[in-house]
Specification:
- By secondary structure, the chain is α+β, with helices and mostly antiparallel strands.
- Helices cover 20% and strands 34% of the residues.
- It contains three helices and eight strands, in the order ββαββββββαα.
- Strand 6 and strand 7 form a beta hairpin.
- It is globular, with a radius of gyration of 18 Å.
Amino acid sequence: MASKHDPDDAPKRASRDDKDGELAIVGRTVLINRPRPELFAFWSDFTNLPSFMHAIESIQMTGPKRSLWRVKAPAGQTVTLETEVTETIENQSIAWKSVEGSQIKTQGSVNFADAPADRGTLVSADIGYEPPGGDLGRLAAKLFAAEPNIQARHELKRFKMLMETGEIATGANHKTNDGDH
């Protein structure tokens, strides 16, 4: 039996203690029926992320590898962070981390792999974050239904819908011009 401090081949998101040092780890994988280069190209342009990630209000590029993110936080708050792309492997992976001076500390990566039997692309996102307010902030996020594990699952589902159909289905009830619902 391995001790608590022995390295493990499993992804950090699968470990019993989902913290990487002080960062909580969130990770999800989704199968998307689109070619890997297309998905990689869309995600590589960080300004596309708010189109399917509801927690992100906006992303503005501040340099070739840097971007400024405005992210919704619990209780109607907003946090700002600047990120830097730390690694890009064309059509395979993108990794980033927040830079000094950001309101929250985060790092993440998204990996793109061909699915078996030519069924599309497996997209895996692993994000480490230090919630505003630490463990207390994590608890508050769960209470306000903004828990990152749940958000990550929903955001990848929205990414799948957007890439496969060109739109994101919602449960919203819209009125038409003739008054029908």
